[in-house]
Design a protein that fits this description.
The protein has 262 residues and is an alpha+beta fold. The protein folds into three domains: 44 residues, Uridine Diphospho-n-acetylenolpyruvylglucosamine Reductase, domain 2; 99 residues, Uridine Diphospho-n-acetylenolpyruvylglucosamine Reductase, domain 3, CATH 3.30.465; 101 residues, CO dehydrogenase flavoprotein, C-terminal domain (Enolase-like, domain 1, 2-Layer Sandwich). It is built from ten helices and twelve strands. Strands 4-5-8-6-7 form a five-stranded antiparallel beta sheet. Strands 9-10-11-12 form a four-stranded antiparallel beta sheet. The chain is globular and about 60 Å long.
Length: 262
């Protein structure tokens, strides 16, 4: 049974409480199932609901999103409309009303589609502990005594996103593809592609990126990138798909994502 539930008024206070042990609680969609089932012994929860981490700021092509911002609110933000397909592909409306941006960074694959998108955006994450603050890349390890406070990313010039699921709504990923591109004069100058559902964590498709750069964003380039997308992946079996199937359909969805196909 839970013995302590804390509601700190700041991230610094939350970090101080975390030094004494316990689990951070954002929206609860990851933590509470473990608490309710007793899968992991938890006697202290530290809620970030009142810690002042629910702000969203977009200026000069850069976005700053607080870790406690819900997925639903992120999806409603007009200046971040490109992320709506990402948000709407995650779980169900009741879950999105609770789940947070910071919490999604810790969702295990084949969940965590926002984390895949943030990896493609080259996002940076501010974390805080009693020892001070630091900034890391999305995907870098967060220490047990650190609180994620803010996620920073630039708005993409060209954005592509595709998620293959068993059902149209409320399903985990078979393959997720997110790509941020810079295209000038029809030629790809920069490319960052992230994949979900094909490894234990979201991964960069570095070989696919290189296959695009310096080429027109056309069918031939998309097929070249798709053919290279397997490099660095480690598909797995689960209740949603087999490793064989994930590997089989990965290039199909990379090609479709890059070409903006439905």
């Amino acid at each position: 049974m839970l013995a302590n539930i804390h509601l700190p008024a700041s991230a610094a206070e939350a970090a101080g409480l975390l030094e004494g042990g316990g689990w951070l609680l954002g929206g609860g969609t990851l933590v509470m199932p473990r608490v309710n089932t007793g899968a992991v012994p938890v006697d202290t929860l530290i809620s970030l609901r009142a810690a002042g981490l629910d702000g969203v700021r977009v200026a000069d092509g850069l976005a700053e999103v607080g870790a406690a911002v819900t997925l639903a609110r992120l999806g409603e933000h007009e200046e971040l409309a490109f992320l709506r397909p990402v948000v709407r592909s995650i779980a169900s409306p009741p879950v999105r009303n609770l789940a947070t941006v910071g919490g999604n960074l810790f969702a295990t694959q084949p969940h965590g589609d926002l984390a895949v998108a943030l990896l493609a955006l080259g996002a940076r994450v501010d974390v805080l502990s009693t020892g001070g603050a630091r900034t890391i890349d999305v995907g870098e390890a967060v220490a047990h005594n650190e609180v994620v406070t803010t996620v920073h990313f630039g708005l993409p010039k060209v954005w592509r996103y595709r998620k293959a699921m068993r059902r149209k709504h409320n399903s985990a990923s078979i393959v997720t593809v997110a790509a941020a591109l810079v295209v000038t004069g029809g030629v790809v100058e920069q490319a960052t592609i992230a994949l979900g559902g094909v490894a234990s964590t979201p991964v960069r498709a570095n070989a696919a990126e290189q296959a695009l750069i310096g080429r027109p964003l056309d069918l031939a380039a998309a097929e070249a990138a798709a053919a290279a997308a397997h490099e660095g992946t480690a598909p797995f079996d689960d209740a949603y798909a087999s490793a064989w199937y994930r590997a089989r359909v990965l290039p199909v969805h990379v090609r479709r994502a890059l070409l903006g196909e439905d």
